[in-house]
Amino acid sequence: MTDWLRMCLAGGLYYSGLVRFARWWTTRAGRYLVVLNYHRASGGNLRRHLLYLRRYYRILHLEAALEELYSPDAPGVRRDRRPLLALTFDDGYADSYTHAFALAGELHVPLTIFLIPGYIESAHCFWWLEGEYLSHHAQVDEVKIDGRTYRLSWAREREALAQAIYARACQARTVRERETFLTSAYHALGATSSKTAEERRASPLTWGVVREMAKSAWISFGAHTMNHPVLAYLTDPAEIQFEVEQGRAMLEQRLERQVRSFAYPLGKKRCVPCVGLAFAGH
């Protein structure tokens, strides 16, 4: 769907009155929590999103929202009838700091960011972006990947190569297998890891800015595995356990506080059963 079509559809829903009706209906429904998930904070109009959401929803950190959702109302206390909303950002892109963090403080909107410690440690490009990067920075005219030859002078072949690299990395049975494949793809394509300014904004956060954000009342952090594999494809239960437990443990060590929430990588029905949850405790 094109951006123009999305804008037309959104405008039609808004001006038809359906959005207003939906808000009216939800204020009269039972208690529930809306979790709105972002990845990138730049490239759109996040300020307008936050201003709109702040007006019509009561926004809390995910952990606080879940606590309230499952706690009984205090006797005699009148509850704000606006729907409860948690705003989350997956992966910890650099623009979570340069864009989302700045707006959170300015507009007083709490955000929950799910971090991947392995990428903060390495500062490497996220694996799901590698296919697009490699297909556009290849230094060869032709390459053979997994038995198929791609002629990179054709745009559709570059697109097919990007999709193939993504699929292979996504379906890796171990993190080591994924990283070995990506390294071999870099070598085969003659690409370097030099990044443009835009590509650097798509890089992971650093521990320095994570600790700075952690001091703010408007940011909470959750775990998102150690290295962001698609857990449904991993074949070793011990590696699955490591990814979930070590990712949380490293965050707690670096932040010196308890991490109580977890976002499942690629939490879609076809892959895994859930998107986010809260840890009950240690």
Write the layout of secondary structure elements.
Layout lengths: L2 H13 L2 H10 L5 E6 L7 H11 L1 E2 L2 H8 L14 E8 L3 H13 L3 E5 L1 H6 L4 H11 L4 E4 L2 E4 L3 H16 L4 H15 L7 H5 L5 H8 L4 E5 L13 H19 L5 E3 L12 E3 L4
Parallel strand pairs: 1-3, 2-3, 3-4, 4-7
Antiparallel strand pairs: 5-6, 8-9
Helix pairs in contact: 3-5, 7-8, 7-9, 8-9
* Mean of pLDDT: 86
Using the alpha-carbon principal axes, give the shape. Answer: globular
User: What low-confidence regions span 5 or more consecutive residues with pLDDT below 50?
Assistant: 21-28, 270-282
Return the CATH architecture of the largest domain. Answer: Alpha-Beta Barrel
**Residue fraction in strands:** 5-15%
Count of helices? Answer: 12
Helical residue percent band: 40-55%
Report Rg.
Answer: 21 Å
User: Which CATH first-tier class of the largest domain would you pick?
Assistant: Alpha Beta
Estimated structural class: alpha/beta
CATH topology of the largest domain: TIM Barrel
The span between the termini is 44 Å
Query: Which sheet architecture does the biggest sheet show?
Result: 5 strands, parallel
Number of strands: 9
Write the CATH homologous superfamily of the largest domain.
Glycoside hydrolase/deacetylase
